[in-house]
Every structure is written in C-alpha cells, then in structure tokens.
Specification:
The protein is an all-alpha fold and 459 residues long. The protein is built from 18 helices and no strands. α1 packs antiparallel against α2.
C-alpha cells in the first residue's frame, strides 16, 4: 500500500501542472455537452433522445481521433524527453495525415447514410428523424474537430497545456451563445431546434480549429512544426509509428465500436431509458474530468521519464498513479451521487425516466471507482510505457467477451433492472482494473522506442 503514495513533492507538482489544465478543459467540454443536452431537452424528450443517439456515432470519430492523437503522444512525449525534434515533427505529420483521412471517411458516411446511422441505434421513427437533422449539420464538423483534437494532444505533450484550455473556455461561450440563438431563435433567425444545436456546435468547432491549429502551425516554437511539414516525407518513422501507435488506434477504434454496441442495447430499451442515459452520461463526464486529466498526465510524465532513461523511477511513478486513480475514483463516485437528484430535477424528466436515471446514477457511481483506476493506468502509465499491443488485446477481450454479451442478455433477454443492466454493460471496467495491477507489478509494460536516427543506424 505504501507504494501507492510516494514522498516526492516535485512529482506531484509536475503531474498537477499537466493534469489540472487538461481536466479543466475536459470540464469545459463536458459543460458544452451538458448545455447542448439541457437546451435540446427543453425542446422535447424525443429531440433529446435523437441528439443523444446521433452523437454516439460522432463519438466513434472522436474516439478514433483520440486513438490517433494518443498513439502519437506516446512517441511525442518520448522524443520530447530525448530532445529529438526531427522525429517529433515527423510523428506529428503522420498523425495529421491519418486524422484528415479519418475525417474524410466519416464525413462521406454521414452525408450519404444518416438514416442508416440512426437505424443502428433505434427503430423509433420520431427519434430517427431528429437524429438525422442533427447529423446533416454535423458533416462539416469532422475535419475541424479532428484536427483541433489531435493538435491539442500534441501541444499538451510539449508543455503547452494552457493555450488549449483558454481556447476551450472561449469555445464554450461561442457554443452556448450560438446554440441558444439557433435552437430557440432570435435576432431575426428562426428557431431551428435540433438542427440549431448542430449548427452551434459546428461554429464552436471552427473556432477551436482556427485558434489551436493556427497556433501550432504558425506560432509555437518549442518544436517548430510548420504547415509545410505536412507535405514532407517521413521516411522510416512510419514503421515506428505503426509499431507503437497503430495498436492504440486499433484498440480505441474497436473500443468505440464496442461502446456503440452498448449504445445499441440502450437504444432498444425505449425512449425513457435513452433519455435517462443521456442525463447520466453528462453527469459522469462532469465527475470524471480529473481522471481524464491525470490519465493524460500519466502518459506524458511516463514518456518523459523513460525518454530520460530512468526505468526504475517510471515504475515507482506507476504505483503513485495507481493510487491517484483510486482516490479520484472514490471522489468521482461521491460527486455523481451528490449531483444525481439536482440533475434529474433540472432536466424536468417524466416519472418513469427519472426512476431509471436514479438507478443508472447508482450503478455509474460504483463502476467509476474501477474505471478511474484502470483509465489512469491503461490510457496513461502503461500506454506511456509503450505497452500498446498488450493494451489493445486487454481492452477488447474484456469488452467483447464480458461487457457486450452480458449487457445484451441482461437488458434485452433477462429484463434486469436498469442498475444491473448498466453494471453488466460496464463490467469490463472492473476486470481491467484488476488486470492493470497485475500488469504494473510485472514491469513488462516498459518498452523501448527508437528514434529516427536509431532506425537508420539499424538498416
């Protein structure tokens, strides 16, 4: 137990310096999502359900982009620790090319198949119609959101954490103002309902892209990446990126599909369950932002430490991050329970929907203790150590062997109460938390990463 809390003030200070701005940015993003759902919820529960399910598909794209960005961050943090800017810039180029390709793919699918997308999640025509309206206005948002998301991750890895935070604060007000104007109408603009929510989000995405990508491509001097780098060859670094980063992309991508399978189960349990889940999702996001911040800090700090060549120190820090995860998991659970009744009251839900939401809140509070612990390890320490292939297997084995089948059976076949349906859908979080402790103790998660110079020397 003593390993979980090390006596190193400098370590905790450096972690907090990275994690807190990231967490605050996540809080603001969650706040934007909360305002979206609150405003759309004022239109109708059908509109709320439609937007909730439509954004499940958009979330697949976000997770793929997070996979691309976090995969690159493993290399970026290590190369930054090694002070190898040549390899670092080429890594960013590979990341951006993959992001642009992914955005183009999702834009085409959304433009051509919005009804098919909605039909994945529900067969209720009124909900499908609202979701289609939201998706039609979301086609153009992929490229802006994808590039700003991945570039934000790069900036965090080179100690530029405040600028993305300030950008998110500004984007929050842009989004809320645009949403209010377009959803409910005003200043000569007609009320657009669900379509107005999507348009407001698009405007905020364009704003984020202009500021964050403009800063990275034209202003930032720590690594000196400029737009022309995008068109230059990356040589043998493709191979190292594929070896270390692609497993992260594959893992997060398959995980996104698995989470959408969870959404498919929820989408077929009726409008009340869908609306209740929408409320609890926002609450969960708000309560877990600190965990997300410390997850990314874990990857960055581990990458720096291993880049400096200190394996023993990285292992000690790994245990400290495990302790941080457990503490923040408990804190998040208490926050969820404290917020549950105010959130349910604020959304003005029907009695049936409110009852389901209460059950889900208690289930989420239990799960998040395990989720916070394994998130800081899998998305942070173990990933920062380069253990991406094993993580890819672990993530998806627990999801597809346990969560998806048990969730489907408990919700669609056995008819369990909402508490146990959600617990079954998230059982992988409990299993991964146990596995993370075993993997950390083994020390096998620390992998060697080669620079471009080493790659050329070995050929």
């Amino acid at each position: 137990m003593s390993k979980l809390f090390i006596k190193d003030k400098a370590f905790y200070k450096s972690v907090a310096t990275i994690a807190i701005p990231i967490a605050l940015q996540g809080l603001i993003t969650s706040g934007v999502n909360a305002m979206d759902t609150v405003m759309v919820g004022k239109v109708s529960e059908t509109a709320l359900s439609g937007v909730s399910l439509a954004t499940q598909f958009i979330t697949i794209f976000q997770i793929f982009c997070m996979g691309i960005g976090m995969g690159a961050s493993v290399l970026v943090a290590r190369y930054f620790g090694m002070k190898d800017n040549v390899s670092l810039r080429k890594t960013i180029t590979v990341m951006l090319r993959l992001c642009v390709g992914m955005a183009a793919l999702f834009s085409v699918i959304t433009a051509l198949c919005p009804r098919w997308i909605m039909y994945i999640y529900t067969e209720e025509e009124p909900i499908i119609a609202e979701g289609i309206r939201y998706l039609q206005y979301s086609v153009a948002s992929y490229i802006f959101h994808g590039l700003s998301l991945t570039c934000t991750i790069v900036l965090r890895n080179v100690n530029r954490v405040k600028m993305p935070l300030y950008t998110s604060i500004a984007a929050f007000f842009v989004n809320v103002g645009a949403n209010y104007l377009f959803i409910f109408g005003g200043l000569g603009i007609p009320a657009m309902g669900v379509a107005g929510a999507a348009l407001g989000t698009l405007i905020a995405r364009i704003f984020e892209f202009a500021v964050i990508c403009g800063y990275l491509f034209f202003v930032e001097k720590n690594i000196g990446y400029r737009l022309q780098e995008f068109f230059r060859p990356v040589g043998k670094l493709w191979g190292e990126y594929i070896r270390i980063s692609i497993p992260v992309l594959i893992s997060d991508g398959i995980l996104a599909l698995g989470n959408n399978s969870v959404a498919m189960v929820i989408g077929r349990m009726g409008e009340s369950f869908i609306a209740a889940n929408s409320v609890t999702t926002v609450t969960q996001q708000l309560s877990s932002v600190m965990t997300q911040g410390f997850s990314q800090a874990g990857a960055i700090v581990t990458g720096y430490t291993l880049g400096e060549g200190d394996r023993e120190k990285a292992h000690r820090q790994g245990y400290a991050f495990l302790g941080i995860g457990f503490v923040f998991g408990l804190a998040a659970a208490l926050i969820i329970l404290a917020l549950s009744e105010p959130m349910i009251y604020f959304y003005e839900l029907s009695a049936e929907t409110a009852g389901i939401a209460r059950q889900l809140m208690w289930s989420i509070a239990l799960i998040i203790v395990f989720q916070a612990t394994n998130s800081i390890m899998t998305k942070g320490v173990l990933r920062g150590g380069g253990d991406t292939k094993v993580l890819m297997l672990a993530d998806n084995i627990f999801l597809w062997v346990a969560s998806v089948p048990l969730g489907a059976l408990s919700g669609l076949v056995w008819g369990f109460p909402a508490f146990w349906v959600y617990f079954a859908l998230k059982i992988d979080q409990v299993l991964k938390a146990i596995w993370c402790v075993i993997r950390l103790r083994s020390g096998k998660w620390i992998k060697k990463i080669r620079s471009e110079k080493e790659l050329h020397e070995n050929t």
